Amino acid sequence: MFLANTRKRNADKTFGHDRIAKGDYTVYEIAKESDGQEAKERTLADVPVDDDALILVHGFNNDFDRVSAAYLEFEKKIRKAGFLGQVIGFTWPSYGVWSEYLGDKEQAEFACFSFLNFLLAYRPLLGTRKLHLNAHSMGAHLIIQALSNYSIVAAIPAIGTGGVLIDQISLFAPDVDADILEKNEDGNHAAVETRRLTTYFSRNDKVLSLSEIFNHGPRLGLEGAEHPARVPPNAYQVDCTTLIYDHSGYRDQANVMADLAAVLAGEDPEDIDGRREEDGKNSFAIGPEEEEEDESSD
After folding, report:
1. HSE on the CB side for 223, CA within 13 Å?
2. Exposure on the CB side of residue 117, measured as CA atoms within 13 A
3. Is 80 exceeded by the pLDDT of residue 162?
4. Is the pLDDT of residue 298 over 90?
5. Total Cβ atoms within 10 A of residue 264
């Protein structure tokens, strides 16, 4: 697997939380979980461009060894679900500890310029092939910031098939405000740059429950869109509450990965197997239906 990396390499060839210059990135190739010593430096020219591609962006509290393991596991599972294109990772210098939530947020915002530069360099190489993004947790904050900046700066020429930079954006447990997709918000600007944006959320996410308290407001990955009627026409959401009880458990659920593979294949949202329509604009659920509470008295 290839990685676009914004972590500074240490003298012992490991990667910590030190970052390289703003806007820069380095390409590496990995074959197994490691702290970076196994990573081989490559160039953008080495990254395959003969098929569709999916870029993964991790969330906060992730050391390099945890990221490398998660990305390699994700690649296996999305291939098993039916996606056969390239899977590429993007890694930013998370501190890798719970206590550095704000520090990680600043690191992600710093890295969004590198992420955008990587996109703008890699996307033209794909030609008519499709480029997709999947971001988890704080990774959603990173890509939304990057794509919002791209969308707002009209001086940047449009690239990508059909006039959009990204074909499918999928967000697992996005740690962003629940109203971020509404008019004039960053997520609304970002949605202009994709054919479709799909949010996967679970009300059982205890990590985002804490984030909600910390950020003094609802999170998109915990409760879904605050006002579904106000999201863009190309923004969809999938309620995974009866399947997901863990903040990072989406890739471990075959139902979720099958749904994602269908999204990447460009299937119509209403026709994806296993979905049922929910109340609210562009809203679906997957997994067992929630049991209604019996309000009758004994």
Report:
1. 15
2. 16
3. no
4. no
5. 23
